[in-house]
Structure formats: C-alpha cells, structure tokens
Design a protein that fits this description.
The protein is about 30% helix and about 15% strand. The radius of gyration is 23 Å and the shape is elongated. It has two domains: about 220 residues, Rossmann fold, CATH 3.40.50.450; about 150 residues, Rossmann fold (3-Layer(aba) Sandwich), CATH 3.40.50. It is α/β, with parallel strands linked by helices and about 400 residues long.
Length: about 400
C-alpha cells in the first residue's frame, strides 16, 4: 500500500476453517490498531482460498478475493459473531483439480491427486505488497501458515477453534462461548427431558478432543459424559444412566457425547468427502447411541445434536477479551519484526511461541487427571495449580 507516494507497511489478515464467536472483534482490533500504527491492512477473503484465487496478472478480476480494510468498514462488526472476511477450508498445498481456479488449470499435472500451489500464494502476497500475513485459525489453517514461513514468508498466527485443541496454547478464541452455549442448551433441554421422564443424549462438537463435552458436562452437572479420547461400552453406559435416572426425583438423566466419540471396537462416524486437510464430516454418534440406549433400557430417548448452535451468535466476554488481546499482541510482534510466532495463553499468561510448535504434538483431554473411565464422567478433585479451563 502507498500513502503520500510512500509505501506503508502492510499486513494481510484472514480467517480459515470453522467460524467461531470472537473472530470479528479480533479482525476489528487488528484493523484499528494497525491504522493507529500507520500499518495498512488487506483482508484476504474466504481463508486461504483468497490467495489461491488471487491472480497477480489480473488484479481487477480478483477484487472479490482481497480488499483494503480500514476502521470505517469494520466499525460495528464486533457486535456479532461469524467472520466479516468469510472463511473456507482450502489448503493451497493440496488442491484437488475440481477446486483449481481456471487461470491455474495449466499447472495441474496429469495423474496428480492434488497440486501444491504454495509458491503461487507467496507470489500473490508479494504482488499485493503484504509484509506479513496474520491468519486466524485452528490446526489446519495454521499448518499452512507454518508452511508459508518455512518457504520464507513472514507469519504471525492467532489460534481459534471452539474445540480448544491447537497445540501450544491453553486457550483458543471461540472455546468459552462454545461451552457457554453448551451449558445453556443442556439446561434448557432439562425441561423437555424431565417433563417426559426421558434420557437425553446431547452431541457436542469436538472432533478428536473431548474437552467441549467434558467441560460442558462438568459445569452443567450432567450425569455422564462420553469423550473422544475414551471408547465406551453402550451396555455399561445404559446401566449407569438407568442408575442416574432412578436416583433423580424427576426420573430423567442426561448424557453428553463428543461428535468424535466411538463405541469400543468401532470407528468414528464419518460422512461426506475428505476435505483439503484430510478430514471427513463427523456427527451422528449421539443418535446411534440414543437408539442403542432405547433398545437396551426400554426408555424414551431425546436426541439432540447441538452442532452449529455452539459456534453461532455473539462471543461471550472471555472470548472478546482474548480476541482483542491476541490481535494487539500480533501487531506488537509485527512492529518488532518478530515473525514465525503464534500468540498464546500459557498458565493464564499471554505470550507468544514458535509457530512450528503446533506441529509437534496433539492437544487432548488429560484423561488420567480429568476423566473417570469407569464411570464415564468428569473427575475433577483438585483444581489448585491447574489452568482456568483445567487443561
């Protein structure tokens, strides 16, 4: 970007993967803080798809993929959920032929299952005059960000995911609101479950990490919680949940279950095509479990998949706080020319870590400390010295 004939430093910002509450406040803070520091902002639309589809040889024809962003455009976006810049699950390092833009079709080689367009993305960033890119995303989005840096392009990453499973940070934007939503809907469903003296099976998002199910169950006082990390025995669950039902004066019981949970000896329930990051759509284990419980117990079962309700609407105060602070930290790093970093929370303190950290491990529920594998429920005895969300 140029101002008064001089080139001003410029950042590119994008959001990738699933939307969560807190993205818009993060975007707004990045734009406002950048403006105050004399930094230009380019919004890359629809995640990494914006760079894949940007044609340096036809900037005018690529307008829908990038936009200059100034404070007036984002003045009110923090009042709602979702992402102003839109999002996608595009992975430019592994693009299937059907997803390749027309002007890049010639680069796709015969026999290739997928083509790596990383070099094209870097060319686009350089053509746009972007000095560093700030992606806001989860493991998948940030894995390509890490690839960009390995190729020599400056990156500062911001972790977001309602599953809270980005390795290296205690907290990701979107998690608190997801749990808040989960607890609220669980309590709301007590009225229907109790009125009809049923068993409720409530399926929550959380692909490989069961923290949303565990923490929602812990805070809502749910009878049993099935998590992704521990395969379960339906007959054992049926026995436990009937004990809970009989012990309840209102004669009902409730189970939360992670979408990535699986029955002992079984697999996760997957559907649809594999996406660019190697994932298929999860969901349905709640209904399957409910059907099994109904058969085993003879009781009516209420099945409810919370699904996108957990990531919809405006962020709660904690997600607002973290989103705003992560954005300010990112601009601080840019001003110091400190790249290849991810902003993070560690033991309650704001910090930044090498972006490569996200590829060195997996973040999962500490089953030994936080889960009773025999009783299928949270096991939290001592919280002293543990992080705020017990991770």
């Amino acid at each position: 970007m140029r101002q008064n004939g001089e080139r001003k430093p410029t950042i590119g910002i994008l959001t990738g993967g699933g939307d969560v509450p807190g993205l818009n406040p993060c975007i707004k803070t990045l734009v406002y803080r950048a403006a105050n520091e004399g930094i230009g902002v380019l919004g890359i639309r629809r995640g990494w798809a914006g760079l894949l589809n940007y044609n340096p040889d036809d900037p005018k024809g690529s307008k829908k993929w990038v936009q200059k962003v100034t404070p007036p455009e984002v003045r009110t976006i923090d009042r709602s959920g979702g992402t102003y810049l839109h999002t996608s699950r595009t992975n430019p390092s592994a693009v299937k032929e059907k997803d390749v833009p027309g002007f890049l079709k010639g680069e796709f080689k015969e026999g290739e299952a997928a083509h790596d367009f990383t070099a094209h993305c870097i060319r686009g960033l350089e053509h746009l005059g972007v000095d560093a890119v700030i992606p806001i995303g989860g493991d998948d989005t940030l894995s390509f960000a890490e690839r960009l840096h390995r190729e020599g392009f400056p990156v500062i990453a911001i972790p977001k995911t309602m599953d809270n499973d980005v390795f290296g940070t205690d907290y990701c934007i979107g998690f608190s609101t997801a749990v808040t939503r989960g607890v609220g809907f669980i309590h709301a469903l007590r009225t229907c479950t109790g009125s009809h003296e049923r068993i409720a099976v409530i399926e929550l998002f959380g692909r490989y990490c069961g923290e949303t199910s565990l923490i929602s169950a812990y805070l809502a006082g749910v009878d049993r919680a099935i998590i992704s990390e521990v395969p379960f025995d339906p007959e054992k669950l049926a026995h436990l949940i009937m004990k809970d039902k009989k012990a309840n004066p209102k004669n009902y019981a409730m189970v939360t279950i992670s979408e990535g949970a699986r029955i002992i000896g079984g697999d996760m329930l997957l559907s649809g095509e594999t996406d660019a990051f190697g994932h298929r759509r999860l969901g349905g284990i709640g209904e399957e479990t409910g059907a099994i419980l109904k058969k085993l117990t003879g009781q009516d079962v209420l099945n409810q998949r919370l699904s996108y309700l957990m990531r919809s609407g405006s962020p709660d105060s904690l997600d607002l706080m973290v989103a705003v602070n992560f954005a300010n930290m990112s601009i601080d790093l840019f001003l110091k020319k400190t790249f290849n970093r991810m902003v993070a929370l560690s033991s309650g303190n704001y910090t930044d870590i090498p972006l490569s950290t996200i590829t060195t491990g997996q973040k999962r529920v500490d089953v030994r400390e936080l889960y009773d594998i025999e009783q299928y429920r949270p096991k939290v005895r001592h919280v002293s010295g543990k992080p705020m969300f017990l991770y």
